[in-house]
Amino acid sequence: MLETGVLVLNRVYQPVHITSVRRAFGLLYQGVAKAIDEEFKLFDFDSWAALAAAAHQDSIGTVDRRIRVPRVIVLLAYDRLPRARVRFSRFNIYARDENTCQYCGRRYRRAELNLDHVIPRSRGGSTHWENVVCSCIPCNLRKGGRTPEEAGMRLHHLPARPRWTPTFRSATRRAFYREWRPFLSLADAAYWNAELLE
To answer: Residues with Cβ < 8 Å from 40, sequence gap 6 or more?
Structure first.
């Protein structure tokens, strides 16, 4: 429970991060953040701890009581915006293409997909959003070092730079909680999130 996700908002209620329950309680206790309930009321640590934890809600047991887990917190002194540029990474390419081979249109597990350059690098194709797509291994082998037209294949969607913020588009290891919905406009590993070189 302590490692499940908590949405972190800046002081103007824009999402900036997803942290753990453990870290969220630390921020609340230090007075750096406040918790938000379903009615958008703010609570410091003591007032949040005083709330009764209902049976249907996630809670943490202490020596003398159960404390309800906050799913959204607001930082009191942080007003910066999250980075707007979407990182060019494997994780974000797979998220953009929804784990779907862009040639045959079938969904696969990530282990069964790889990245394909639409215009092969051997032909001068570069590594950027508009030239890299998800491809299943059989389609990638069939296409080889050719363009889709030369291989008699068709792209289901033209590749483009996404406009969403990837941290909040899809959860990687963390669940998406209904308490997050009002604050997210769109509904991790180092390998998946590492910036790819162009």
So the answer is: 182
Strand ranges (DSSP E) for 23-65? 33-36, 42-43, 59-61
pLDDT interval class at 180 (50, 70, 90): confident
- Tallying the residues shown for the chain, one arrives at 198
How far apart CA 188 and CA 92 sit, in angstroms, is 10
pLDDT band, residue 172 (cuts 50/70/90): very low
Which residue do the tokens 């045959």 mark? 104
Rounded distance between C-alpha atoms, residue 121 and residue 79, angstroms: 42
Q: What is the pLDDT of residues 90-145, one digit of tens each?
A: 888 998 999 999 999 999 998 899 999 999 999 999 999 999 999 999 999 999 99
Q: What is the pLDDT of residues 32-68, one digit of tens each?
A: 999 998 888 999 999 998 887 665 578 777 788 788 8
Q: Please give the Cα distance from 33 to 8 (Å, whole number).
A: 9
- What's the CA gap between 178 and 35, in Å, rounded? 15
Helix (H) or strand (E) holding 132: strand 132-136
CB-based burial of residue 146 (10 Å sphere; 0-12 exposed, 13-18 middle, 19+ buried)?
Answer: middle
Which domains are delineated in the chain?
A: 1-83+164-192 (no CATH), 90-143 (1.10.30.50)
